[in-house]
C-alpha cells in the first residue's frame, strides 16, 4: 500500500506543479521555465525558517514571501525581455539558483542538503499526506477550471493565439501574462512545500532540470486548455516510468529509458500539435 | 480643415523599419462621424498607418492626438480603452475560442463589468443576451458553440465586425475587410460597416484594395504612395486622378 500512496502523492505533486506550467505554456503560450526555482525556493525557505525556530505558519509565510519576490523578478523579466530572451532567462535562473544553493552551504547545506525534515502533525503519516496532497491537486484542478471560465482565462487563451488582437480589445497582455506567471510560481511553491513533506530531505537536485523536463512534458502533452487533458497528461507521465520498474532492468538503464520515453512522447506530441503549441508568426 | 474639430489628428507622422522609411511625414485630420478610406499600392504604408494610430508601430517622428488628447505615450490596450478599436488584415478572431467566446471577450471589456460579476447568474444571462443578439445580427447564431476556426473567411470578417459593434469607442480602424471574402458576402460586409458608422456612430478609417467597395462606403479617400500622402479628397475627385488610374488599372485613360 505504501507504494500506491507514494504514487498518489507523486501524481498530486506533479499535478499541482503542472497546473502552473499548463496555465503559462499551454494556455497562455508563455514559455516560463522558472517553475523548478519557485518549487525549490519555497521548500528551502520553509525548511530553513523552521531550522531557525520559526513555527510552521510563519515558515510558510516566509516561503510564500520569498516566492512572491522571485515571481516579481520573473514578471519584470517578462515585461522587459522578448519572448525568447524571457525563456532563456528563466532557464538560466534554474542554473543560477542551483549554483547559489551549492555555494551557500552554511545556510542550505550545500550539495549535502538538509536531512531530517519533519512533517507537520496533520500529515504525520504517508497515508494522510497522500490524501492531503490529492485534495490539493483536486483543488488546483478546480482553480484552473474556474480561471479558464473567467475573463482572465479567456484572455490567456486569446493571448496565446494573438497578443496584438487581445491588446486591440483593451486587454493588457502584460497584466494577463504577469498574472499567469505569478499564479504559476505560487502553485509550484505549494507543490514544493508538500513534496518536501513526503521526501523529508532537501538538496539542490530537488528542483532541477529533471523536474523541468517532467513539468514541461506534462504541459506539452496537455496542450489544450482543458483541465481533463492536464489530469490525463500528469497520469501518463507519472505512471509510464513506473511500468518500467517491473521489467527487471538495471536501475541505471531505467533512468535513461524514462528520459527516452519522455523524449519520444514529446516528439510525437510536438509533431501532432506543434501548430497549437508553438507561438505562431503574427501578421498585423 | 479645422484642427479643433478633428477626432483624430496626425501631424508629420514618420515610421521607419530599419533603414526604410515606411511612412514619411504624413499629416491627416479626421472629423467625428467621417468614413475615410486609405488606398495605395502594396507596401505604401496603409497598414503601418493604422498600426501607428493603434500603437503597434513605433513612430520615428510626429504626433497623434485623439479627442484632443496626446496619445503618443499610451500602449495599444490603453488606446483601445480610450476608444480606438481595430480590426486586422489577418486573423481578426481567435480561432481556438468558440464563436460566443469571441463575442464575450469583446463584450466583457466594453461593458466594464466588475470582475466578481462573472460568477453571477445575472452576468451569464446578460452575456447570453448580448451574444445571441450580436450573432443574430450577422447571421452567425447557428455557429454560436463552434470554434471560430471553422468559419469561412467571410464569416470570420462578419464575426470580427460583430464584435466591433460592441466596442465602446469612437474610432474604428478596419484593415482590408474584403480580403479572402467571397463576393456574395461583400454586400453584407458593406452593410455592416455602414451600420457601424450610421447607427453606432463610429468614425471609421478603412484600408481596402477593392476601390468600388471602398468608394461606396467612404466620405473621403486618402491615397498613399511610397509612404507619403499623395492626394486626398472625395471619391469622385480621387477617381479622376491619372496616377491613381495607372496604379490600380495600369492605364491613365
What do you see in this structure?
The complex is a heterodimer of chains A (about 280) and B (about 250). By secondary structure, chain A is mainly α. Chain A has one domain (about 1-275): Orthogonal Bundle (ABC transporter involved in vitamin B12 uptake, BtuC), CATH 1.10.3470. Chain A has helices spanning about 1-25, 35-50, 55-80, 85-105, 105-110, 125-150, 150-160, 165-170, 175-200, 210-220, 225-245, 250-275. Chain B is an alpha/beta fold and about 250 residues long. Chain B has 2 domains: about 5-95 and about 155-250, P-loop containing nucleotide triphosphate hydrolases (Rossmann fold, 3-Layer(aba) Sandwich); about 95-150. Chain B has 9 helices and 10 strands. In chain B, strand 9 and strand 10 (about 230-235) form a beta hairpin. In chain B, helix 3 crosses helix 4 and helix 5 runs parallel beside helix 6. The radius of gyration of chain B is 19 Å and the shape is globular. The relative contact order of chain B is 0.17. The mean pLDDT of chain B is about 85. Classes of the chains: A mainly alpha (about 280), B alpha/beta (about 250). At the A-B interface, helix 7 and helix 8 of A face helix 1, helix 2 and helix 3 of B.
Characteristics:
heterodimer, A: 284 residues, mainly alpha, ABC transporter involved in vitamin B12 uptake, BtuC, globular, disordered C terminus, B: 253 residues, alpha/beta, Rossmann fold, 2 domains, four-stranded antiparallel β-sheet, 10 strands
